[in-house]
Amino acid sequence: MDNVVYLIMRRMRAPLLVLIGTYAVAMAGMVLIPAQDAAGNPVPMGFFHAFYFVSYMSTTIGFGELPNAFTDAQRIWVSFSVFATVAVWLYAIGTLITLVQDTTFQRAITEARFRRRVRRLREPFFLVCGYGQTGTALVRSLTDRHRRAVAIDIDPERVNLLKLDNLREYVPALCADAREPSNLEAAGLQHPLCKGVVALTNVNETNLKIAIAAKLLHPEITVICRADSHEVEANMASFGTDHIYDPFDTFALDMAIAIQAPCLTLLSKWLAGYEDQALDAPIFPPAEGRWVICGFGRFGKAMYRHLSDQGLELSVIEAVPHKTGIPKEGVVYGRGTEAVTLEQAGIGDAVGLVAGTDSDADNLSIIMTALTLNRSLFVVARQNHRHNKILFERVGAQVVMMPSSIIADRIRVRLGTPLLAELTTLARYREDDWACELVSRVVALVDEHPPHVWEITIDENEAPALCAMDRRGKPVTVEQLSRDPRDRDRALPLIVLLRMDDDERELLPAADVRVRSGDRLLLCGRADASRSLAWTLRNLNVLEYVLTGNAAPGGLFWRWLARRRARAASGT
Asked: What was the pLDDT predicted at 63?
């Protein structure tokens, strides 16, 4: 508001001074010019009457002459004063209208309104810097789970699109440069309820500056950044950036895991998927044979590195190898859109194709040409723009990589269910048979949609009943928690995926493992199972029934009535 007041006073200073001066001269004339009363006796006009008359005279309302009829001299002065004050009012109003239409003033009003909305937030929120494709996907996923977000972007069109998006929660947005600390502060960086800053712009240097500012102005906050180069990643990690995501390395690593452990890849997709979407089908990338990589940029290099670690034979096609570099196996010059180029790379006997250029048109052309030459190819396609989704769905690729979706999904999981990211990391050290068995258990719980995934902290806020049992020394096991609070002989449709405390992390804890205060649990299953489990954890009587089978009365009246009946039955 300080900027708004400053702009108003700066622009309206001259009109206000002219207006005040004109009023003062008109009033002084009315006071100094001789007046007369009803009897014709000379009576001077006071300042109050002069001010009152000039006030409505300048607006040409015309209440009449007061306190008495004017003399001719007064009427001549009034005539000149009317024209002067009306002209000054038109000048002042015109200046005010020009000020209201000024872009600087409108921006100041918008920023002031934005600051007020951020200050009034009463729920934890995340500050998302960059509302491009990745930011759009992340904000939508957060609001779909009823989490609050604040967005900042330098492009006014993106900010306007955010206002038009049909989001479940209101998202305050500001069009500003996120590199400036003052803009980050206005967006709530130092707000006590700001839980994290997510830098998702398409410029590495901007993301780096955002991370630096966040760590300096709010050291305890979680900072998550997107980085497209290893140098920037190392720089961000050097000053404590919490999580750094490279979409190309992330996807290439997922493909390498899919080759080694397809069930683990399928399990990760199901647990991180959207509950209103259909279950993903398993993919089985070929683990032997030749792969052809078209494009040796950042994505192509990441795929080359991770696929070569699997011992696969690789051929690379690149149009400008003098800029991107040449792998040790050599390179085939070209874009890959021509059949002759693909044939030189050995597409005829290849088992896999990576269409990884930064042009969606080239990638679609590469896939269509390659499938004409070899229909049995396993195709990995890079999609750069969201509006081309329908084309990539029909081109025949088994896997489509969109950088914005990769980053948005990873960050959504990290912010929404942090233990799920921990589970994925620990599961990589298990055999694929372990993941296949877990996949079969998940399939038995759900139908055609991904399972509901949630986490619980065993504390007084989320599990007061279990904490009370723990203080009494009564053990509660994983198997007992999984019982239906309405019928303890039935098990709830859920799986305890991970139990974690300060000392250990346990995947798929056994049924007899004790759950204690301070534990964190990651679970999956049906949504109604999470509500039933929450009832058990919060209601001491329900937990008592689950453990012992005794259905104790819940309210004060019912407990008093139960004691009275017990005394009556015993004859006392």
From this structure: 76
Which among 244, 254, 224, 242 has a CA at the least distance from the CA of 427? Answer: 254
In the numeric block, the tokens 């004859």 are attached to 571
Domain hosting residue 32, numbered range: 2-101
Q: At 94, which CATH number?
A: 1.10.287.70
Q: Check the CA dihedral 413-419-425-429 and report its sign.
A: negative
Tens digits of residue pLDDT in 500-514: 988 889 999 999 999
Task: Give the global pTM.
Answer: 0.74
Tell me, what's the pLDDT at 364? 96
What pLDDT is recorded for position 554?
Answer: 57
Rounded Cα–Cα distance for residues 184 and 127 (Å)? 9
Beta bridge partners of 496: 523
Q: For the chain, which residues score pLDDT lower than 70?
A: 1-2, 552-566, 568-572
Residue 154 — left, alpha, or beta (φ > 0 → left; ψ -120 to 50 → alpha)? Answer: alpha
Q: Indicate if 276 and 411 belong to the same structural domain.
A: yes
Residue 259: its pLDDT value, please?
93
Strand locations in 216-300 (E): 222-226, 243-245, 290-294
Report how far residue 360's alpha carbon sits from residue 382's, in angstroms, rounded to the nearest whole number. Answer: 7
User: pLDDT at position 408, please?
Assistant: 85
Q: Of 194, 212, 245, which residue sits at a domain end? A: 245
Phi, psi values for residue 149, rounded to 5°? -145, 155
**DSSP labels for 388-450?**
GHHHHHHTT-SEEE-HHHHHHHHHHHHHH-HHHHHHHHHHTTS-HHHHHHHHHHHHHH-SSSP
| Closest C-alpha among 350, 370, 377 to residue 289 | 350
